[in-house]
Amino acid sequence: MFGSASQTATSAPAGIALPRRISRRDLASSPLLVFYELTQACDLVCTHCRACAQPARHPEELDTERSLRLIEQLTEFPSPPHLVLTGGDPLKRADLFELVEHAAWFGLEVSITPIATPLATREAIARLRRAGASRMAVSIDGPNAASHDATRGVAGSFQRSLQMLADARDEGFSTQVNTTLTPANADAIDEMADLFASLQIAMWSVFFLVPTGRAAHAARLSAVAAEAAFERLWRHSQRQPYVIKTTEAPHYRRFVAQRRAAATERGPAAPPTSPALHLNDGKGVMFISHVGEIMPSGFLPIVCGRYPSDDVVAVYQQAPLMQALRDQDRLEGKCRRCEYRGMCGGSRARAFAVSGNPLAEEPDCCFQPAATTPPAGSQENGCGAR
Of the four, 90, 188, 207, 374, which is 20 to 30 A from 196 by CA? Predict the structure, then answer.
């Protein structure tokens, strides 16, 4: 259904000065975020792992030389992206510090998502900061050791995560907590929100589960439960000292727009315009796997090209699927006629995981668009029907 795009790769000139601003219009030519999965090797056995991580590194991982060239290729975007080095556990790669230093030298902002294992020592965190990484994100999936460690599969993971955040803060990192929200921890949103306020984080990124990887058959929040979670997150966003964002829950933007409209008595019929970029899978986001597969996101595993055979800039700009994901008129079902589709668009990853169609309607949203006549063949469910 969707093919790939290729183009001869070239290297960016050394020491190039990179623009830092990007607008919504720029997303057609440049992603804001590029996630590079350095490895799938990891010593944890998380129940919701997107990557189905394994203890050993894959023999076909991109080697150091190709990884360095990949980083340079990212600078060829008109607006070079923020680079997120992820895994598996990035600290499983001995060349991690060299890669961070290379990216920083080329002017890229670099974030890192290490795993809470003994590899994440204070010394390693300090080295990452000296190499040029600016933000560290640590996963915490519960308000205490019992809830978090059960998810991560290793005793002591919760305390290790807290120590990593403290070490990163002391070393000058901006810090972030990532939480995957499921029926098992949704009732603990309030406890987690208050705990994270004490950790001096800059952002809490709340992931709404996509049934892919090890989580393919895991329970996820129903549409009604997602709305209840949105209500709690919105309430905390008004009082907590950190930013709250959602991942794979773009319908939270619709929820926020409705709340803001109601608060100013404008009513929900006309969604307010916003300078926000409204990122989504393939729209301002690109993912490159440990073996060079180029995909719209780590949660939407449709391969649009493969580095180094394909140029990452050309794939993002020209691959048919990437272009389709950025075109709101290509959405199907109720998402296509939704008045909030410009700011939301639904999780393309979840739509694909549930239906096999990345342009299908968001399966975990109970909002009913103002237009009541569904496109032929679509099936509608109300908020109480899932």
Answer: 90
